[in-house]
Design brief:
8-stranded mixed sheet; globular; 197 residues; TIM Barrel; disordered N terminus
Length: 197
């Protein structure tokens, strides 16, 4: 089974976040993946208290017609873990997805992605934010910032501030394709957070 891991920064201590297996989310579209889920979750559990949210990153082709499939999948997940669901199809906008996730204690992953409008709803006691950007804009050479996105990061900083005031834990992930250098993106975001508190 193929796993991808990602460094995730909390707006408090540093922990690891994990991207779910593409075999489960993209190849099997959440159907008939019980054995793969059990293997994946038991492997990730080895991280102990360093484990952040387990992300179900649905492919762009997975639209709102799959709501029932997603709901059934979430019902069967092992308890005791934080789950976040990322959608990339516009049909999910203005759907019952936030309510369904809230009922199951799963977080709606909030993304900054070219083809998706921003969502800003927290559906769990934690929030997971992912600054993704466009892979075509910065295909390689991720050594320094190449795009100024301070206005966007200030918007996200205000949202994170609201979540923190509500007592939620916030996880944030930056892809190199957002500004070409993810460590600098996170540093700029944290500067905004410190400046606004």
């Amino acid at each position: 089974m193929r796993y991808r891991t990602a460094t995730t920064v909390r707006v408090s201590p540093f922990v690891s976040g994990v991207l779910n297996s593409k075999e489960i989310t993209h190849e099997q579209n959440l159907v008939g993946a019980e054995a793969e889920v059990e293997t994946f979750v038991s492997t990730m559990a080895e991280l102990g208290d360093r484990l952040g949210p387990l992300l179900l990153q649905l492919p762009p082709s997975f639209d709102v017609e799959g709501m029932g499939v997603l709901e059934d999948f979430l019902e069967c997940l092992p308890e005791g873990f934080r789950y976040a669901v990322e959608v990339r199809h516009r049909s999910w906008l203005d759907s019952d997805l936030p309510e369904m996730l809230r009922e199951r204690g799963a977080a709606l992953t909030l993304i900054d992605y070219p083809r998706m409008p921003r969502m800003e709803e927290a559906t769990a006691d934690f929030s997971y934010i992912r600054w993704l950007g466009d892979r075509r804009e910065f295909p390689s050479g991720h050594t320094h910032l190449e795009k100024e996105r301070d206005d966007d990061l200030r918007w996200w900083s205000d949202l994170v501030g609201r979540f923190l005031e509500e007592g939620r834990t916030v996880f944030a992930y930056a892809n190199n394709h957002y500004q070409n250098h993810s460590p600098s993106t996170l540093a700029r975001f944290l500067e905004n957070q410190r400046g606004g508190r």
